[in-house]
Write the structure tokens for this entry.
Amino acid sequence: MNNAIAGASMLQKCFDWTDAAAARASGVYPFFRPIQEARGSKVIIEGRELLMAGSNNYLGLAGDPRMKERAIAAISHYGTSCSGSRFMNGTLALHEELEARLAVFVGKESALCFTTGYQTNLGAISALVGKGDHVISDKFNHASIMDGIFMTTGLNRTVTTHRYKHNSMADLEAVLARIPRDEHKLIVTDGVFSMEGDIVDLPSVRRLADQYNAALYLDEAHAIGVVGATGRGTTEHHGDPALADLIMCTFSKSFGSIGGFVAGDHAVIDYIKHFARPLIFSASMPPANLGAVMAALDIIDAEPDRVTRLQAIARKMIAGFSSLGFNVGTAVTPIVPLVIGDNDLTFLFWKNMFERGVYVNPVISPAVPPNRSLIRTSYMAIHTDAELDQILQIAGEEGRKIGIID
Ligand code: PMP
């Protein structure tokens, strides 16, 4: 068979797929909009200033001059790339310094940094779960957890995946009870759920993990800097770092950088270090990003008001949207979903908010279950009350206009 023809038919689907083009033509295509400039809580897009109510820069650190300075200092000292993986030539003294600080920060013996949060979940889960093991995952867990599980099952087809109803301890227990006691089990859950903004019932998950002899892996991507009295995340919120056996987090949200880490007992982290393919076969976290995280740790310690302000903002926005009549689900954090349910109305609401100068994120299946499409709003410690009131006012006006609230 002629290779050119085989290649063409392989790629034909790309030419036949018109969904994005149709959405662009009708003006409701929300994705990949380039930000020309970031100015604190405002962004410039298509030459217009918008209020940012859709970023994960929860503590407002990504634009902080102290973060930039430390990133630049790290570049000056180490250069722009590590040019290799942690395993070989890509481990810097700064990686190890940061890992020691992170372990203390989350109350664990040891920590290990990856180049992204996504790779952290891929690497840690696939290193730990092997032949004959079971992974038990909340249905609303982030895609990187699912991909970590897919990687595990791809590497070893005898791994069994179980998914339980979101934050349902009854369903989690029913799943655990079906698995033979002597088979190895890893329960994986988000601490704060990325689309719903609710918090896992961690003490109950821990109780079930102990009762059914399972290990517990906690993804704190949206929890560190956000929940807990000093921003240490879900374990602090529920009062004890030992509630999870492993804690992972990304640096792309509260830490204002990019990368991720997993923390736990020394032996477990050392094992992950030697078996995580995304760590071994990908270049390590670059100096600038390490420097920024070091600065973020200093700022989080020195300025605890950022965390308390963020938590006050969460309460204000949840109360504000609820009193306007929006369905905010079970949110208790600065991730405040406006559940709409219908994809077309979700995109229309997004477009109207965008035109009124407010940046929010439309979320549809598969990122949320079908019929639960929503507008994901999220807030930063640097938002002023006047900005938050403006967002509420515009959302109320636009919501009434298209009939999603009365
Ligand atoms: N875990 C969760 C819960 C997330 O929401 C994300 C990213 N949105 C990740 C992991 C992956 O992190 P990163 O974007 O830093 O790779």
Summary: The first helix runs from residue 3 to 16. The pocket of 4'-deoxy-4'-aminopyridoxal-5'-phosphate is lined by residues 116-118, 121, 142, 144, 190, 194, 219, 221-222, 250, 252, 258, 260 (CB under 6 Å). The chain has a mean pLDDT of 96. The first strand starts at residue 35 and ends at 39.
